[in-house]
Amino acid sequence: MLNSFTISELTAKLARRECSARQVMQACLDQIQRVDGRIKAFLSYDAADALSQAEVADKAIASGADFDRRPLLGVPVAVKDVLCVKGHPCNCGSKILNRFVSPYDATVIDRLKAAGAIVFGRLNMDEFAMGSSTENSAFFTTLNPWDATRIPGGSSGGSAAAVAADEAIATLGSDTGGSIRQPAALCGVVGLKPTYGRVSRYGLVAYASSLDQIGPLTKDVRDAATMLGVIGGHDPRDSTSVPEPVPDYVAALDADIKGIKLGLPREYMIGGLDPEVKRAIASAVQRLQQLGAEVREISLPHTDYAAAAYYIIAPAEASANLARFDGVRYGLRVEGADPIELYGKTRGAGFGAEVKRRIILGTYVLSSGYYDAYYLRAQKVRTLIRQDFLKAFEEVDAIATPTTPTPAFKVGEKSDDPLQMYLSDIFTVAANVAGICGISVPCGFTSTENAKPGTPKLPIGLQLLGKPFGEQTLLKIAYAYEQGTFPRREKPPLAP
Ligand code: GLN
Questions:
Q1: SS3 helix, strand, coil % of the chain, rounded to 5?
Q2: Cα–Cα distance between 58 and 314 in angstroms, integer?
Q3: Which of 169, 315, 372, 382 could cross-link 358 (Cys pair, CB 3.0–4.6 Å)?
Q4: Measured in angstroms, how far is the CA atom of residue 333 from the centroid of ligand 1?
């Protein structure tokens, strides 16, 4: 089954003419037909457009295209519904962008296309990327390919589930507080959040502009390196993208990590940590030690305040960013007697409950009288959190933590309790607050030995955090771990 291969496996096959891009694309479309009714990763896709892109790729291959220059040639890549793809819908999982069609390509989409990828499909997500389970999608909830009674994580839940279920070879997500790493962990795939400024945000619908980054979700670490090499780099259309050269991430993969210094933050070993997660992380760390990593305990003293600071800063920025959805410029319009009524009715009808909650919270923390008490303080805490990390990185090359405090939870389990839902990001938000990079790599499963009969095994993710623009080091450690521990990927029961 061609759809179950990785990018590197497929491009090798395509280069040797053992299969065509059309066959690969068709295999993904067939898999979607077969399993997406149960998983619901896709909001929509255009099969005819995808196949015609595949034909273009096949022509390029036939005329001797260079896979070094176009490392994604003929590879189907699906994208989260928050990225603009010219001529395709972009709804951000929301009703307010009803019938909106992107007039241009996001920079990452430009780059995927230039590298030869077949960009297809719109992947489900929490509305405007606000959430941790895809239950906030205005359309439907995506289900976890390992157990359809559970959530796939969020907000890039569709992006993670689609890769886990082999419906796409790789996907793009966005990560504002964990939305790539958390669903990657819960679905058993690799998810990389680049350093703030590594990847252009042009054409990414903004949630919280100072925290958002686009990144890949892939079947293995090598593919994450390939994808980052394609989408990374300075873009004159995003002034926050950094003119730092893009290294050859794939060439830097090297299974030898002898002498790498790995920090374990004392503050992350919290009481609420699921015992299965704790066990899996402990054995991953042991494995890394066997592979030559030097492990030491470190301290990130302001960790306790990261989620609180995040849930002030992110809604504050969101309240400003989402002001543009007013019924005049994009998507949905509900008429009113005057413009004010039109804005109110459109936003009232178009936004879901969580988005409204964030807008109200964000407006509150920015309002005069509360600005100093909340927003300004959160920004000061943000500086302290960044300093914690920079200080730690004077001592260690990377930091290892669980990606999530628990494995995938049940649909509905946390949807009535926003605070519980917010806490599922407890280990991921700090990286965005500090602007550093992070990756989640599969590190095993919950054990079914002591569990009730019929309880499925669920994936667990190891998070590695790295210094600004230290993606190479993270990828190298993650690669060594993956190669030395789980060289073959297991398939989820819903998409065998
Ligand atoms: N779950 C977090 C939130 O709801 C993070 C979301 C994200 O990274 N986009 O804000």
A1: 40, 15, 45
A2: 43
A3: 315
A4: 27
Listed as own residue / partner, the contacts of 60-67 with beta carbons closer than 8 Å and 24 or more positions apart are: 60/116, 61/14, 61/15, 61/17, 61/20, 61/21, 65/116, 67/11, 67/14, 67/15
In 211-304, DSSP assigns E strands to: 213-218, 261-265, 294-298
Which of 130, 201, 440 for a ligand 1 pocket mutation test, highest count of atoms within 8 Å of Cβ?
130
With beta carbons less than 8 A apart as the criterion, state whether 367 and 324 touch.
Answer: no
What confidence tens digit (pLDDT) does each residue in 467-476 have? 999 999 999 9
Give dist(CA 98, CA 118) in Å, integer.
25
| Nearest in space to 78 (alpha carbons), one of 161, 171, 216 | 171
Helices then strands, each counted (H, E), the chain: 15, 11
Catalytic residues: 80, 155, 179
Work out which ligand 1 atom sits closest to the CA atom of 432.
8
* Atom number, ligand 1, closest to the C-alpha of residue 425: 1
Residue 421 CA to ligand 1 centre (angstroms): 10
Report percent pLDDT > 70 for the chain.
Answer: 99
DSSP track, 9-54: HHHHHHHTTSS-HHHHHHHHHHHHHHHHHHH--EEE--HHHHHHHH
Residue 243 contacts by C-beta under 8 Å, 6 or more apart in sequence? 234
- State which of 176, 217, 311, 415 you would mutate to test the pocket of ligand 1, scoring each by most atoms of that ligand within 8 A of its C-beta: 176
Atom of ligand 1 nearest to the CA of 179: 8
Distance 26 CA to ligand 1 centre (A): 33
List ligand 1's pocket residues with C-beta within 6 A: 129-132, 155, 175-179, 207, 314, 425
Structure tokens at 217: 């979700």
Going from the Cα of 427 to the center of ligand 1, the distance in angstroms, rounded, reads 12
Q: Is the pLDDT of residue 122 over 90?
A: yes
**In this prediction, what percent of the chain has a pLDDT beyond 90?**
92
Q: What is the pTM of this model?
A: 0.97
Q: How far is the CA of 35 from the centre of ligand 1 (A)?
A: 27
How are beta strands 213-218 and 190-193 bridged, if at all?
A: antiparallel
- What Å distances lie between residue 466 and 173, 351, 480, CA to CA? 19, 36, 16
Q: Which atom of ligand 1 has the smallest separation from the CA of 129?
A: 9
> Crossing angle of helices 107-114/221-231, nearest 10°?
110
pLDDT of the residue at 495? 81
Residues paired with residue 80 on neighbouring β-strands, in sequence order: 123
Report residue 419's pLDDT band, with 50, 70 and 90 as the boundaries: confident
Q: With contact defined as beta carbons under 8 Å apart, do 481 and 439 qualify? A: no
Rg over CA atoms, the chain: 21
